[in-house]
Structure formats: structure tokens, C-alpha cells
Amino acid sequence: MSTRIIKFKKLSLVTLWMVYALIAVGATVRATGAGMGCPDWPACFGSVVPPTSAAELPPDYQQQFSNYRKAKNEKFAKYLSYFGMEETAKKIATDESINQEAVFNPAKTWTEYFNRLAGAAVGAMMILLLARGFQVRLHNPLFFWLPLALLLITIFQGWFGSIVVSTNLTSWTVSVHLIFALLIVTLLVYLITHINKTENLPLKLRLSILATWLIAAVQLMLGVRVREAVEGVSNLPRNEWIDGAGNSFLIHRSFAWVTSAAVVFLLVILRKNGIFNSLSKGF
């Protein structure tokens, strides 16, 4: 393996772990309710560095940022209408609750700001990955085209993150944001398998990987359904949320065992086939 390929491989693995870290940070933002900590994008309260207290903001900051988000949502609704999503577009354009601005909370603001810094770092890594991929493109065209696709998806993901904020964390936008994050992970893993020349695996092993991926995807979609169901009954007392989610929660909880078993089984197979040793070569 040439020096350039080794550097490309290292950068790919570092980028993958940074994406995992970003997803974990995003989950923290979601769990702490800090998603609206910054009401605008890419700035935060109109600044590169967010304020630390409400005293640094104008008296009518809530109305200002509410108007900002409303204008952005109306523009987004036009895009949705263009693609035939009339009902969704109408709801976004007319639902005034989406435009309600929360009271400034420094903890939530800085939690969301850290999430954005992590996202910017991942974006920078994608640019570096594309530059490295261009250098080694003659070894395999995918070394250029996959990083290019990853960079474009990351740019879209950043923009769509602003839509998640402007629509006040609407359930379906949060779900789309998560799905694209996992698409980025999938493409990075696929890139790494090609760098390690492990794409020509035995058919049984490739089928096992595909089956595990599909099982994980099903579990993900079940989780999305549970989250949307819980958000639909979030006005109820917290101890009633599970009952309000209905059978989707029970199915999701039970299917977690299937997913865990599939992952463990796949790890055992990968270890027996020496895949982990292949990943460690060049380090």
C-alpha cells in the first residue's frame, strides 16, 4: 500500500469517527432540548460567537428571529410545493406555532453552538478527504467520486439542518436529518472497504453485512416512528408517553434484541475473516 493510500485511509477513518462523534453530539442536543438554542443559521443569534446572556440581545430579539424564521419557512414551503408536497408546504407556511421563539437559554445556546462547531469540523474533513481522493484517484475512481458525493451530501446536510431549526424541530425534518447522517456513515464505511480492498469478500460474508445493515435500517425507522409518536403525545405527563406511543414502542424495544444479535454475529464473522487486521494495516 503506497504512502498516499495509507494517508487517505487514515483520513477516511478519522473522518468516520468524527462523524460518529457529531451524531453523538447531535443526540445530546436532541436529548437536552437544545435544538433551538440558536434560532438562526449559520450564525447564532446573528453572531459568529453566541451571547452568554439575554442582556447582550436587543429587547425584541424574540420577534426579530421569529420573523427571520417565518420568512425562511415561507421560502422553503415554495420549494416543497414545487415538488408536489402541497399539504406539507401549507402546514409549514401557516402553522404559527412553528415560528414561536423561545426565551434565551445560555446552556442550550452553547450546546447547539458546540454542535455546529463539530459540524463545521466534519465539513472541513470532507474537503480534505476530497483533496486526498483526487491525489489517489488513479488507483480507483471511487477514491474521488465517493468523497465528492460525501462533501455534497454534507453541504446539503448543513443546509437542511438550518431547515430543522427554522421549522422549530418539526418531526419529519428531524427524521430526514438523521437519515442523511447515517447515509454519510454508510458511504464512508463503503469507501474504507474499497481502500482496504475488502470489497471482494466471500458472498456469504457480503450477504451477512447487507442483512445486518438492513436490520439496523429497520430498527432506525422503527425508532423514528417511536420518536414521532412520543412527540405527538408530549403534552401528556411523561409517565404516559410510552403508552401513548402504542405498539410502535414495544416493537422497537423487542427488535433491539434482533439488531444486537445480528451485530454481534457479524462482528464474530468479520473477526474470523481477518477484516479487523486488514483495517489496522498501515497504522
Any overview of this molecule?
By secondary structure, the protein is mainly α. It folds into two domains: 3-196, no CATH class; 201-283. Helix content is 73%, strand content 0%. It has ten helices and no strands. The protein has helices at 3-32, 61-82, 86-94, 106-135, 142-166, 171-195, 203-232, 241-245, 247-272, 275-280. It is globular and about 60 Å long. It starts with a helix and ends with a helix.
Order of helices and strands: HHHHHHHHHH
**Helix segment tally:** 10
Oligomer: single chain
Number of strands: 0
State the distance separating the first and last CA atoms. Answer: 11 Å
Class from secondary-structure proportions: mainly alpha
- Give the number of domains: 2
Global outline:
globular
Task: Describe the sheet with the most strands.
Answer: none
Portion in strands: under 5%
What share of the residues lie within helices?
Answer: over 70%
Task: Output the radius of gyration.
Answer: 21 Å
Uncertain stretches of 5 or more adjacent residues: none
Average predicted local confidence, pLDDT: 86
